[in-house]
Write the C-alpha cells for this entry.
Amino acid sequence: MSSVGLHWSALGFLSVLLGIFAPGLIVGGVIGALAWPARRAAGAALGGSVGAVIGALLLTIGFGIRLPMGF
C-alpha cells in the first residue's frame, strides 16, 4: 500500500485554478478592454470573468476534465 498522497493547501489550490483559468482570463480581459473603450478596466474585469467561465466550461464539457471543487 502506498503512502503517497496529495495534500492541497488553499494557496496551492488557488494557484492550480489560476493556471487552469489563465488563458480565459487573459484573452477575455483583452477582448473586454478593447470592446468597451470608455471603461477599459470594467471591460477587462468583465471580459476576464466571462473568459474564465468559458474556459472552465470548455475543460469540463469539451474535454471531459473534472475540476476539483473541494479541499
